[in-house]
Amino acid sequence: MVLDNARIHNAKLLASLLIEMKERLELFVLPPYSPQLNIVEGLWKWLKSGLINNDFYHTVTEIRTNVQQFMEEIIKTPLAIVDRLCVRF
Length: 89
Hints:
This protein is mainly α. Helices cover about 55% and strands about 5% of the residues. It contains 4 helices and 2 strands; from the N terminus they run βαβααα. It has helices spanning about 10-20, 40-50, 60-75, 80-85, and strands at about 1-5, 30. Strand 1 (about 1-5), helix 1 and strand 2 (about 30) form a beta-alpha-beta unit.
């Protein structure tokens, strides 16, 4: 399981659960600032550059509709998603 540095991942209430999970899962904690290692950050950047930058939405419904269309469009080409978002070492 990959953990970024979200507050919830470091919460005291979660500590005992994470200790328990270490027996069943391998936990990988990302460095403090590493957006290049967090795939969702790449997706957010892609979404923002395609939908949000230089656009104004009058309603939340408009935003939701456009995000849904974006997701439906990119899912048609899974290899393009992998090529764009996955880090190669």
